[in-house]
Amino acid sequence: MRIENSFIPVRGVGEATERKLWRAGVTHWDEFDPSVVGPTTADRIESFIAEAAPHLDDGDARFFDREFPSAERWRLYENFRDDACFFDIETTGLDHHRDRVTTVSFHRADETTTLVQGDDLTAGAIREQVADASLLVTFNGKRFDAPFLEESFDLTLDQPHLDLLYTCKKLGLSGGLKAIEREVGIDRDRPDLSGRDAVRLWREYERGDESALETLVSYNRDDTVNLERLADTVSSALHREVFESACADQA
């Protein structure tokens, strides 16, 4: 589903009104028919489209991040997926005041980069990875990954952020990343590894086991690459459930 299929950012337009528009054949901004809604709502929709269209042409994800209700920001994904940065961190524990980040993987445009503590994991390197990303994509990253990086490296990650934990919940998918991957049919090379193993592997690496670092990096990269597959899967499912189902009811 694309931004230009959406009318829900408009003040006074909720799910019911948006579905009414879609069922009437108004499935794109270019197709807006003022007669489908009342005059006040029609004026608001026309004003919003006039304001939003240039922002969309300019690739301004921040505008739509502000305008869309938080539960509907998954709709930004299709428009901005090519400029999205998927990322995932591994740490020595869960306390971002006390524990350390060990590895961070970033996946963009089919390329994956992993930064390692004590080697190339620096504030500057993180900034370089996310600098021109229109959209950040994580799983539970709003509560964990992003605050951990910000605290540990004195960063501000202020790009629009799609947290797939909440997107998955809209489809009734709950639990951790790996459980949801299994449920939607996403495979990984080492399904036996967990976050606890990531902590153990780092400790083993600190004691001199280089192979432990290789396994940790592989695990971290799998988490990150699979974020793109999960985002594709859940956004497509929501497109069918939210948009296509309403369009199918057209009079």
TrEMBL record:
SUPFAM superfamilies: Ribonuclease H-like. Gene3D superfamilies: Ribonuclease H-like superfamily/Ribonuclease H (3.30.420.10). Residues 85-234 form the YprB ribonuclease H-like domain. This is Ribonuclease H-like domain-containing protein.
